[in-house]
């Protein structure tokens, strides 16, 4: 009831005060964030601060961004285009690095969804450093630190989901290893992130739903994770309230400009949150599933979100009934209580088979994102969560 909610909030405020007194934390983001309708028009002036030879990374549909590229060229830019036909993997990054070096471009501009932005971020980093991308990749690579500052990188998201424009990592697939892993460094933060909600107006409903639920996941997981901090808490609370109001609206009407702007903002906040705290079980699963099956990241997160939350709550009630994470899940439930959850395809519809669940669970245990989950889930709990999401 209402009194229970007030009591829980009071308890949370008290715990938060104790944590702030004791804790140390850092917060980092893109060098500059430019948010708002029409801000894409500022791209030429911003990019000119580095170079008029631009390496432009786009998604598979280059035509969609023809107007932006025409504006750059009209402003005197020489643009070399590099399209990303799929979610980025090691082969695409190597190809992009070779193309960027050949073009001798002085600024990298990524225009697109999370795939294009992660690819651009990785290409800008590896092109400025010696060796191969595997030398710097987590989990399956050597995990070396970048030696040199990446080529200046500008991120322009055209979806509202990953928040990749303000994160310090790029998620890359490896067909050889059957998994996705991160290239990660504070040096990889974008010099500028231009977030223009108008660029999301033409998105199909399917992408709007899956990317929106990815954004929601990236507000929930940092809020309950074991690396949360007070600044991330504030960001997540604001983002969750905006997403609860705007996600159902934008799924019902893709031309709702206010809801589109709200989801672009929520996605941006999710990127800030995950980059400065951590994620959890949903993204722990997403890394191996995305590496093993040709399924979009957003769709994977959408299929797993409710089941991952339920698994954590069950485990916390059993093993840590007094944990702050449980109180936070109750707060999330209150914020999202009036939100109409949209139906999304299960994992089976994304190609995941029942026989693959033990392998996915084993790989998920080693995933970077799983290390921040608020409770350690057993192998059996992980498999049961996957089975529920099929």
Question: What does the main sheet amount to?
Answer: 6 strands, parallel
Written as H for each helix and E for each strand, in order along the chain, the element string is: HEHEHEHEHEEEEHHHHHHHH
Strand neighbour order, sheet with most strands? 1-8-5-4-2-3
Number of helical stretches of at least 4 residues:
13
State the end-to-end CA separation. Answer: 33 Å
Low-pLDDT segments: none
Give the total of beta strands: 8
Principal-axis shape equals globular
Structural class, judged by helices and strands? alpha/beta
Radius of gyration: 20 Å
Beta content: 5-15%
Integer average pLDDT = 92
Query: Helix coverage percent of residues?
Result: 40-55%
Secondary-structure topology with pairs:
Layout: H1 2-22, E1 33-35, H2 43-47, E2 53-58, H3 66-74, E3 78-83, H4 90-103, E4 107-112, H5 114-127, E5 153-157, E6 169-174, E7 179-184, E8 192-195, H6 205-224, H7 230-252, H8 257-276, H9 281-292, H10 297-319, H11 324-336, H12 357-366, H13 379-389
Parallel strand pairs: 1-8, 2-3, 2-4, 4-5, 5-8
Antiparallel strand pairs: 6-7
Helix pairs in contact: 1-11, 4-5, 6-7, 6-8, 6-10, 7-8, 9-10, 9-12, 10-13, 12-13
Explain the overall architecture.
The model has no long low-confidence stretch (mean pLDDT 92). The longest helix is centred in the middle third of the chain and has 23 residues, at 230-252. This protein has helices at residues 2-22, 43-47, 66-74, 90-103, 114-127, 205-224, 230-252, 257-276, 281-292, 297-319, 324-336, 357-366, 379-389, and strands at residues 33-35, 53-58, 78-83, 107-112, 153-157, 169-174, 179-184, 192-195. The strands form two sheets. The chain has a six-stranded parallel beta sheet with strand order 1-8-5-4-2-3, with helices on both faces. Strand 4, helix 5 and strand 5 (153-157) form a beta-alpha-beta unit. 50% of the residues lie in helices and 11% in strands. With 390 residues, it is an alpha/beta fold.
């Amino acid at each position: 009831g209402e009194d229970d909610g007030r009591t829980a909030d009071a308890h949370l405020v008290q715990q938060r005060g104790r944590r702030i007194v004791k804790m140390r934390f850092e917060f980092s983001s893109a060098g500059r964030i430019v948010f708002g309708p029409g801000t894409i028009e500022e791209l030429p002036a911003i990019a000119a601060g580095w170079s008029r030879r631009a390496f432009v990374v786009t998604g598979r549909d280059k035509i969609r961004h023809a107007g932006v590229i025409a504006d750059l060229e009209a402003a005197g830019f020489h643009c070399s285009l590099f399209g990303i036909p799929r979610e980025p993997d090691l082969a695409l990054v190597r190809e992009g690095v070779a193309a960027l070096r050949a073009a001798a471009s002085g600024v990298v501009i990524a225009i697109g969804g999370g795939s294009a932005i992660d690819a651009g971020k990785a290409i800008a980093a590896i092109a400025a450093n010696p060796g191969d991308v595997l030398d710097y990749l987590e989990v399956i690579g050597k995990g070396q630190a970048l030696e040199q500052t990446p080529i200046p990188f500008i991120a322009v998201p055209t979806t509202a989901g990953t928040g990749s424009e303000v994160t310090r990592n790029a998620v890359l697939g490896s067909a050889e290893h059957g998994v996705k892993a991160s290239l990660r460094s504070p040096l990889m933060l974008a010099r500028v992130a231009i977030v223009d909600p108008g660029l999301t107006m033409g998105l199909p409903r399917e992408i709007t739903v899956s990317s929106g639920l990815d954004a929601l996941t990236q507000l929930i997981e940092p809020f309950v994770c074991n690396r949360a901090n007070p600044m991330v808490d504030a960001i997540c609370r604001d983002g969750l309230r905006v997403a609860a109001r705007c996600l159902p609206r934008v799924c019902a009407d893709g031309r709702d400009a206010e809801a589109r702007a709200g989801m672009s903002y929520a996605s941006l906040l999710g990127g800030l949150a995950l980059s400065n705290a951590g994620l959890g079980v949903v993204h722990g699963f997403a890394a191996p599933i995305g590496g093993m099956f040709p399924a979009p990241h957003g769709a994977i997160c959408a299929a797993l979100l409710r089941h991952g939350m339920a698994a954590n709550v069950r485990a916390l009630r059993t093993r840590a009934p007094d944990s702050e994470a449980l109180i936070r899940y109750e707060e999330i439930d209150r914020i999202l209580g009036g939100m109409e959850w949209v139906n999304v395809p299960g994992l089976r519809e994304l190609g995941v088979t029942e026989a693959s669940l033990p392998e996915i669970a084993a790989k998920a245990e080693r995933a970077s994102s799983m290390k921040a989950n608020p409770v350690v889930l057993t192998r059996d709990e992980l498999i049961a969560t996957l089975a529920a999401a099929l």
